[in-house]
Specification:
It is built from 15 helices and eleven strands. With 344 residues, the protein is α/β, with parallel strands linked by helices.
Length: 344
């Protein structure tokens, strides 16, 4: 119901001309770059979203857009395309980017940046944040005790609570080794063999791209790659400074070896300030990256810290009219009113 109301409101904004007006006001106000933050590429109508974005925004490669943003106006060449610059980014490197987004990028000639996690490219394993829910769904045991609480898995709400408890423990892990040790314990606790391979299309899409797929996309010229840490830990939770340096620096080194080109952009795992911390920002700069993106909501402006750049979180499942309203700014303008009136 709420989703339908959201689409209805977005339709009203679009066909009343409010979205167009908001785009126009944005274009003629403070210089900015819209950086969209996707994760999955399947499960919605990505083609329709990209067609809208290509028509109304100047879609640019990330480094090129940011170089233009931070160049003083007096040093820039005269531009005849005055549409607001927009950058498309996909975090994590899910395999469904290759199966669902790559062809569209080539057909529509749209540049996209994908932030990769080399540890998962190498291992081919399911991403850790996908594992809790998947393991609970696959178990055949009736009950499990974790952290002093017994979960009765015949009940849907108990299964959901257990997967959330597993996820919290994984996020709080002070090292990648401890995270993986806990996961091994979860496999045992749920009576699932550690080497079990779930051979389903859904499980396959929850894994990383392969190096061959990555190189194929790189050769197209439409997909570029950035770093997303070596193993996607919560950087601020890491207890050993040496591991923090490794996650950020070794990631760049391995990607450059595999891709044969410089990797200069970084995306913080999870991406909120409390998740990466001040020390990670320093290490990113030391590692030679030229910029880093967060998941802090906002537009990138000339005042944005190049190593704490804002993005707009979005999703391929959104209706294109909702996406249009959100990135134009009109949605956030009316959002407090709608939340009070109808909870949308």
């Amino acid at each position: 119901m709420r989703k339908r109301l959201g689409v209805l409101l977005a339709t009203l904004f679009y066909y009343s001309g409010l979205v167009k007006l908001s785009r126009w006001l944005m274009r003629d106000s403070q210089r900015r770059v819209i950086i969209l933050n996707y994760h999955r590429a399947s499960g919605g109508d990505l083609r329709r979203q990209l067609l809208y974005l290509r028509r109304h925004y100047r879609i640019m490669p990330m480094e090129e857009a940011l170089a233009e943003l931070y160049t003083p106006a007096e040093k820039q060449e005269r531009r005849y395309d005055r549409r607001t610059p927009l950058v498309l980014t996909f975090d994590d490197g899910y395999r469904d980017f290759y199966t669902h987004a790559f062809k569209l990028a080539c057909q529509l000639q749209i540049p996209i940046t994908v932030f990769l996690i080399p540890g998962y490219v190498e291992s081919g394993r399911c991403f850790w944040w996908e594992e809790g829910k998947q393991l609970v769904a696959d178990t055949r045991v009736d009950q499990v005790t974790l952290d002093g609480y017994t979960y009765h898995l015949s009940q849907a709400n108990e299964r959901s609570a257990l997967s959330q408890a597993i996820d919290r423990r994984l996020r709080a892990a002070p090292s990648v080794k401890e995270r993986e040790t806990f996961l091994t314990c979860v496999y045992s606790m749920l009576a699932i063999p550690a080497d079990q391979v779930v051979d389903t299309a859904k499980a396959a899409m929850s894994r990383s791209l392969t190096w061959d797929e990555i190189r194929t996309m790189q050769q197209s010229g439409w997909v570029t790659f950035g770093a997303h840490s070596m193993n996607h830990p919560i950087l601020a939770a890491l207890a050993d400074p040496a591991e923090l340096h490794y996650e950020i620096k070794a990631c760049r080194t391995l990607l450059e070896q595999q891709l044969g080109c410089a990797v200069r952009t970084f995306a913080y795992p999870v991406g909120k300030p409390e998740d990466f911390g001040e020390e990670a920002v320093k290490v990113v700069q030391e590692a030679g990256y030229v910029c880093a993106v967060t998941t802090v909501y906002g537009y990138a402006t000339m005042q944005s810290d190049p190593f704490r750049i804002e993005r707009l979180l979005t999703d391929v499942s959104r209706h294109w009219l909702v996406l249009a309203a959100e990135i134009s700014g009109i949605w956030s303008f009316f959002s407090p009113l709608w939340k009070r009136v109808i909870g949308v």
